[in-house]
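Handout, page 2. Input:
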Amino acid sequence: MSRLSGYLSDPLLKGMYDLVRESGPVRPISLDITSKCNLRCTGCYYYAEGMDKVPADSDDVVFDQMLALEQTRGTNFVTVVGGEPALVPDRLRKIYRQFKMNVATNGVIPIPREGLEDMPLGIAVWGDHATDAGLRNKGKDDLFSVALDNYRDDPRAFFYYTVAPGHAHEIESVVEQSINNGNRVLFNYYSDVSELGGDLDYRRGFDQVSRQVEKMIDRYPDMLFTTRYLNQVVTTGRLDGKAWGYDVCTNLTADNPVNAGRIQNGNPYNRHFRAINADFQSTRRCCTGMDRDCDSCFDTWEHFSWVMINMRKHLHSKQAFTDWLSTMFSFYVVNRLVDYETGLEYLRQVQSDDAFSYP
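Output:
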C-alpha cells in the first residue's frame, strides 16, 4: 500500500480528498476588474505599486473579448481584485455566468445579490473599528460598521481580515463581531507597503498574531477558513525548509517575459496563471506586485497556492498530508468549488483538536 493510500484509509481524509478530486484542478487568473476605487487605504498594494497607472479601463467590448479568450484558454477560476469591484456589478455578473470566482471588496458599497447569488465575497477589514478606519480612510468613517451592516447574514460574505503585527490584541474582537454578524473569517497579514513602521512593520514578525489566530481556530473551528498550517506557513515564511520569496512563489504570470528566469529555476509554479491589469490586455509579474520585494508579501491567496502546488512535499507523514489537505480543502470550500455545506462540515471536523492527534 502506498503512503497516500494508507492516509486515505481515514474516512475524514478520504472524504475531503475525493471532493477535491471530483471538483478537478483549478486553472486560475487574477483580474483587476477596474482601476477605480472609492477609498485609498494606507498599505494597499494596488496603489502603492502604481497598478492604477495602466491605461484607463477599456470598454466592455475589450472586457468581453478578454473573458472569451480566457474561457478558450481553459481558465475556470477568476480572483477579482482592483480597484473596487462593487463599482462595476455588471462586469461581475458576466464573470459569474462563465467562471467560478471570488471577489475582494472594501465592503462600503453593497454588491447586489441578484445574478450573484452564490458568489464568494471577501469583505476587507484591517482591524477593530478605530484601527480599520485609521488605515483605510484616515479615521473619517467607521468602515467596519458599514461593512457589518451591508453584509449581515449574507451567506456569500466572509471577512477577509488583514491583521498587522502589532495588533494581535484586536483579533478576538474582530472575529467575534464578524461571527455574530453571520459571517465567517479568513485571515490575511499586513505588509506595510506604505512603510509606516512601528506596530505595522512586518519585520517585527507575526508571532503574537499567529498564536492568537490559533486560539480563534480552537474556539471557532466551524467559522474560520484559515487552517493552522496555512497560518504557520504565512507567518513563518517557511515550507519544507524553503523560505518564501519570488523564487518559490507559484502564482506568477507564466507567459510574461519578466518571469522567464523564475520559470526556469526548477521550483513548481502554476503554468496557467495570469495577473491581468485593468486594461484587460496587459499582464504584470504577479497578483500583488509589479516589482516589490516579496519579503513584504504575506498575501494569503499566494500562500494558499504555495501550499497547494507542493503536495509531494507533504507525503512523508499523515500529519503533513493532513496539513496539506486541510489547507487545500479550505481553499476549495471558501471558493465554493465543492458542495459548500458538505465542505463546511468536513472543515469543522478537520479543524477540531481531536482530528489533529494523528500518530
